[in-house]
Amino acid sequence: MIPDNPVGPIKKPPAARRTPKWLTRNEQNAFLREVRGQNNKRDYAIMMLMLRAGLRVHELCELLKSDITMSARAGGVYIRGKGDKDRVVPPNSEVRSALQSYFEEREDESPYVLVSQRSKKLSVRGAQHMVENYRNRTRIEHLSCHALRHTFGHDLISAGNDLQQVAMLMGHYKEDGTPNIQMTMIYTTPGIEDLTAAVESISWT
């Protein structure tokens, strides 16, 4: 009824900086338990490549068998990244095991790492739809392909890894080809789980 807002001139408190969405350790456990429960080795390999190697969804779909080298204790995943900024991510034991199990059951001749039932190459929409299905099953509202990649970055930082190493693994590069640490700094922003652990760390009980 009044023409002016009487609280309009009052400054609002500063808003907290938005943080990227990642999965907590409990959410990761619930999510991976659901994926393993489906007994689908392809789905599990897809999740490991995003969650434990940080691949973007389009990088995942473009990945060729020839881009991957693996041995019992080492290996490399050659990734054609955004803006022609390629990188190599050494797959950890979880990724190597998931890929090996998936490759052992493959009988097709597709050169791509990931295939669908109807195509020799998994589509971006197909990967997104699969993750959406798991989001509905687990009821983890922020579960997405991008959240899985963010979880990889956040977990690397939480484990105490050097920012330059994380930038290289995430594919964060400047125009001159050097690691873009500023872009990687977003993963140092604590989530609620990190803040809870911080206050618990000084509890005497």
TrEMBL record:
Q: Which residues form a coiled coil?
A: none
This protein's source sits in the domain of life called: Bacteria
Classification via Pfam families? Phage_integrase (PF00589)
Going by the UniProt record, its keywords in alphabetical order are: DNA recombination, DNA-binding
**GO BP annotations listed:** DNA integration; DNA recombination
Q: Where is the signal peptide?
A: none
PROSITE patterns recorded: TYR_RECOMBINASE
What Gene Ontology terms describe what this protein does at the molecular function level? DNA binding
Q: Does the keyword Protein biosynthesis apply?
A: no
Which residue range or ranges hold the Tyr recombinase domain?
A: 18-200
Q: Which residues cross the membrane?
A: none
Q: State the InterPro entries in the record.
A: DNA_brk_join_enz (IPR011010), Integrase-like_cat_sf (IPR013762), Integrase_catalytic (IPR002104), Tyrosine_recombinase_XerCD (IPR050090)
Return the similarity comment.
Belongs to the 'phage' integrase family.
Q: Kindly provide the name given to this protein in its UniProt entry.
A: Tyrosine-type recombinase/integrase
Q: Which organism is it from?
A: Paenibacillus xylanilyticus
Q: What is the lineage of its organism?
A: Bacteria, Bacillati, Bacillota, Bacilli, Bacillales
